[in-house]
Amino acid sequence: MPTETVPSDTVRCAIVGSGLAALATYATLRHAGVRPEEIAVYGTHEDPTEVWRTRAAAIRQQRMRSESDGHVGAAAFPGLAVHEAARRVTLAPLIATVANRYHPRVEDFLRHAEAVRARSGWEQSFRRERIDRIEPVDDGFALDGGTFRHVLVATGHPGLQRPVEFREAVHAYEPHDYAPTVAVVGAGMAAATEWLNALAAGSEVVSIRRREPVRRALNVPRAFFSKRGLAAFHAATGERRASTLRELSTPSYPPGPAWDEPIAAAERLSQFRVSDSSQTQNGVEQVICATGFRKGWREDTLLRDLVETNDLPTHGRWIALAPDSTVPGLTDPRRTLSIAGVAAQWAFPAADTIAGAKYAAHGFVRRVCRTR
């Protein structure tokens, strides 16, 4: 379809994707004074929480793994801990967040995200349309719906990961119940949550995993959320950065008795055991794949086209981004192409978090506002 030509003196920016990273970026743009009519959001879901909410409900998630600053509001303060403390008239959430031990409830996070969406003007900018190609042009980028000087891509995970031998199994992030005997494939957060869910439902559980999971409160070590930690990561060689990201992709879930005690009790009753063999599924009534998502730019059709058409530098499954999450070679003083979400790990190892989404959003907004 013909593209719309946007005057070069008009600030126009587009967000490709309509999930939580897109909402965090949109809220940050609005907070910086960019008007709804200056922003186009292209996506398949008008509700930016829909996909995440469905997956969280599927694994019966009750608490966020992130901490107090894990919210989509543009300003760091007040966080979810402040809102909960005011609502419950207690200092407990504030004390917990000072010690980095506050994990908001999923329902509180979703209520907050809906409030951000409602007051931001999201509906004025949203267009229900899937973008198949981003083409660099003079002073911007041509999308299916127009030409924009600044574009941020936040397309999220490229799909659920199902090992070939478990192709017919239900995925943890799809709605399901629990059979009397359940095999859970995987060893990360979703798998650990499913162990507890199935045990609570009265099931006997077999954990099928190739390695022991790492016990980590956050999905990556806290150092990578700091300026010093990021500076060291950005200064490393390409191979060292790729190696670090491979290490961080090791399955993990938080430490603590809330996870360990139900497992220990079930092991004593022979209701929980570990196996490293897929043959364990024989005789099991239900197999649940808690194997996460497909990984890398090749799995995302939009990113694959962008990389291959423009010969962008990559390292393994990662696009080699600048530290501010922009795409070198396609970003210059006139235009910006940024990537947010899981595909932006080369810039921010914890990109697949709300904190990571906001990291990319702040870099994007700085460039948009500098050229207003």
Can you offer a commentary on this structure?
- With 372 residues, the chain is an alpha/beta fold.
- The chain contains 12 helices and 17 strands.
- Helix 1 (20-31) crosses helix 5 (106-120) and helix 3 packs antiparallel against helix 4 (92-98).
- The two termini are 28 Å apart.
Q: Predict the CATH topology of the largest domain.
A: FAD/NAD(P)-binding domain
Estimate percent helicity.
25-40%
The CATH class of the largest domain is identified as Alpha Beta
Average predicted local confidence, pLDDT: 91
- CA radius of gyration is 21 Å
Q: What is the chain-wise order of helices and strands?
A: EHEHHHHHEEEEEEEHEEHHEHEEHEEEH
Termini distance? 28 Å
Structural class based on helices, strands and sheet pairing:
alpha/beta
Largest sheet: 5 strands, parallel
The portion of residues forming beta strands comes to 15-25%
The gross shape turns out to be globular
CATH superfamily of the largest domain: FAD/NAD(P)-binding domain
Tally of strands: 17
Number of helical segments with 4 or more residues:
12
Low-confidence parts: 1-9
Number of domains: 2
Topology, element by element:
Blueprint: E1 13-16, H1 20-31, E2 39-43, H2 50-58, H3 80-88, H4 92-98, H5 106-120, H6 122-125, E3 126-128, E4 135-137, E5 140-143, E6 146-148, E7 150-153, E8 170-171, E9 181-185, H7 189-200, E10 204-208, E11 214-215, H8 227-235, H9 238-248, E12 252-253, H10 257-268, E13 272-275, E14 286-289, H11 301-310, E15 314-315, E16 318-319, E17 336-339, H12 354-370
